Amino acid sequence: MSPNFLQLRHLRYFLGIVDAGSFTGAAGMLHVAQPALSQQMAALEAELGVELLQRSQRGIRPTAAGEIFYREAASIIGQVEQLDRVVRSAAGEPEGLVRLGMSSGFAVCWACDFMEACRMILPKVHLRLVAGDIVRMRSLIASRALDLCFLLEDEPIQGLSRQPLFHQPLSLVGPVFAEDVTHTISLERLAHLPLVLPTRPNTVRSALDRALQEVGLTPNCIAEVDTFASALSLVNAGIGNVIVPKIVFSDMPGHGRLRLISIDPPIHVTACLISSGNTPLPFAAQAVGDLLTTHVKLALRKDSKKKEG
C-alpha cells in the first residue's frame, strides 16, 4: 500500500458505513455524496487487495477482514480524537476517555461504586466500562479497544502488561439452609453439590476443574452461564451454588440471603490489572488504574476487618 494512500477520512468513512449498515445512511451521517463514498471504499479495497464490505439487498456488513479493519480503525480514530485531551491531561489534571474492562463478576459487585468514585475523584475523566469474559477482554486489550482490564487470570498473557492486585482462595456461595453449620467443605462434597458454573474458557472454571481432576472428581454442573449476574439470579432462586473469590462475597448484591463456605484444600486465583505491553498508558488511564488499585485495597481491608470482627 502506498504510505500516503490511507488517510483518516478513509477510516471515518469505513466506520460510518459499517455503523449505518448502508452507503445511503452513511452518506447522510458523514455529509458525503453517496457516489463519492462508494468510490472511496472501492479504492480502499483495491489498494488493500481484500474485500472489507459484504454488500447485499439487506444492507452492508463487514467481512472477516472488515471486522479486523473496523477494530483497528476505531482504535486509531479514538486515539486521534483524544490526542488534544491527552496532551492537556499530561500537563495537569487527568482528562479524557478511559476504556476499562471488567470480568462480569467484578462488574456486578464493584462497577457502580468504582464509577462513582471515579466521577468524584477524576471529574475530567470519562470512564467507559465494558464487562465480559476473559476471551473478549484479552481480544479488546490486544486490539487496543480497551486501555485497562480488571480480571481473574490463570497465567501471564504474552504481549500484555500484568499487575497482580490480589491472590485469594475461591469459596462456595449458595442459599442459606437451617442445616448448614459448617464453614468449610471438602472437594469430595463440593463435587456432589449442584453448581452454576461459568462457560469455558474461564479462570474460575479452569481452577476448579484442575483441583477436582487432581483427586479424580468432576463438578456437578447443573447450568453454565456467560455472566455472573445470570449465575447470581439462579443462586438467589435456590437452584444451585456458585464459586467465587472470597472478596467478592462481601460486595455481592443480596448476599444476606446467601452463605459463604471455604473450600478445603483451598483453590487460589489471582486478580490482575491488564494493559497493553506494547504502548505506555495515557496519563488518564494511569490515574484510573491507580484509583482502581486503591479501591481494591480498601475492599480487601474491609473484608479483613469483617473477618477479624
UniProtKB/TrEMBL annotation:
<dbReference type="Pfam" id="PF00126">
    <property type="entry name" value="HTH_1"/>
</dbReference>
<dbReference type="InterPro" id="IPR036388">
    <property type="entry name" value="WH-like_DNA-bd_sf"/>
</dbReference>
<dbReference type="GO" id="GO:0003700">
    <property type="term" value="F:DNA-binding transcription factor activity"/>
</dbReference>
<feature type="domain" description="HTH lysR-type">
    <location>
        <begin position="6"/>
        <end position="63"/>
    </location>
</feature>
<dbReference type="InterPro" id="IPR036390">
    <property type="entry name" value="WH_DNA-bd_sf"/>
</dbReference>
<dbReference type="InterPro" id="IPR005119">
    <property type="entry name" value="LysR_subst-bd"/>
</dbReference>
<dbReference type="GO" id="GO:0003677">
    <property type="term" value="F:DNA binding"/>
</dbReference>
<protein>
    <recommendedName>
        <fullName>HTH lysR-type domain-containing protein</fullName>
    </recommendedName>
</protein>
<dbReference type="GO" id="GO:2000142">
    <property type="term" value="P:regulation of DNA-templated transcription initiation"/>
</dbReference>
<dbReference type="Pfam" id="PF03466">
    <property type="entry name" value="LysR_substrate"/>
</dbReference>
<comment type="similarity">
    <text>Belongs to the LysR transcriptional regulatory family.</text>
</comment>
<keyword id="KW-0805">Transcription regulation</keyword>
<comment type="function">
    <text>NodD regulates the expression of the nodABCFE genes which encode other nodulation proteins. NodD is also a negative regulator of its own expression. Binds flavonoids as inducers.</text>
</comment>
<dbReference type="InterPro" id="IPR000847">
    <property type="entry name" value="LysR_HTH_N"/>
</dbReference>
<keyword id="KW-0238">DNA-binding</keyword>
<keyword id="KW-0010">Activator</keyword>
<keyword id="KW-0804">Transcription</keyword>
